[in-house]
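Session log. Operator J.P. requested a structure for one protein chain; no other inputs attached. Running the standard single-chain path with token output.
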Amino acid sequence: KSNIGHLEAAAGIAGLIKVALALREGELPPTLHAAPANPEIPFAELGLAVQVRLEPWPDAGQSRIAAVSSFGFGGTIAHAVLEEAPRAADGGGPDDGTHQLSSRSASSSPLLVSARDQTALRAQAQRWAAFLEANPHTRWVDVVRTAAERRSHLDWRASIVAHDIAEAVDALAALAHGRAHSSLTVGEASTRDGVVFVFPGQGGQWPEMGRAMLSECPAFAESLAACDAALLPHTGWSVIDVLRGVRQDEVPPLDRVDVVQPALFAMAIGLAAAWRDLGVSPTAVVGYSQGEIAAAVVAGALSLENGARIVATRSRFLRRIAGSGAMATVGLDLDALRTRLREAGAALSVAGVNTPTSTVISGDCGAIGAFVSRLTADGVFCRRIDVDYASHSGAVDLLLDDIAAALAGVSSDAVACQMVSTVTGDPVAPGQLDALYWYRN
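Structure written below.
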């Protein structure tokens, strides 16, 4: 009131804003026109004082706390307690334009720029570059947060992922002049087709994957707990313990196929839950190899319990053929690969078609090694996949009867979003995902 007068119904929010600013700035602002103090009020006896000058707010090594009251003429009594906000994740210091951003900032905090057309996008980039050059001490975390949360996201968009502010300025200048830059991605937004969630197979795992998200992302942690409960009757061990890196004398090792595949299943379900919690839901899903089980659960075609049963059963039977097989990625299209297999007389299977120019082979370990060596000598890209079994090959024929019996009664429901099968190449129909389908998978 002493600063801006009586605001009546808005008086409380004015006090709240003043206290919030005092907490942020670490300063104690004065109450104007309060000196000399009213002699009728025993301030010393009450342990009170009126702030009559601007002073630093002492840092006692813990969060500053303040309270603000609003007492209305009609009897309203409001009292709010505010605590100082945590320090910014990037360390909070100024940026001199050459400061290396943390890996967390550089990888997960892009600068987002948008406009209604390409011309306006270039002009917007020019303004951002000029701002950063004129304000070299601006914190990067504040820049990207403002761009992401306080600006409209229009049709033409650009994303800059930079290691320092100088690189960000270079990328913005490139955008402003219509040039390419390694830190810059430009495109036009579209809402026509929606988002597709792609669920990978085995091979991209690492020890203690998901450990940080279990602590930091409630939606992920809640989903993992549900997966753990669904898997436990089939595995006998906790997938959360595996992901947390509990000692291997208490849980089985992640490099076992019947451990890594349930763990990847749970990770995929958890990541989908995390995205949905952020407001990103799929219009369609697709899964590769055992990733198709998680895709079916997310699409609503399988219950979580049936998905857990399938992945645990599938991986348990695959362990029977572990130790003698191998797989490899080959940089050839399908026709060229089949031609090379015939020429080599190799008794190998085409396990998958990743892209028009990338395929996967599967079979006996020795035969894979010889074929990969031959192709590599001819200059063809090849890479062994980190598995010791020949999945998606004739080696799994021995498992048909056991899988069919173990998964008897499994069926699929109508999907909540479209699921495209990587077994057939077509959209999944209700009831299609039975035991035979998962054997074919």
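Operator note: Residues 103-188 form a domain with the Alpha-Beta Plaits fold (CATH 3.30.70.3290).
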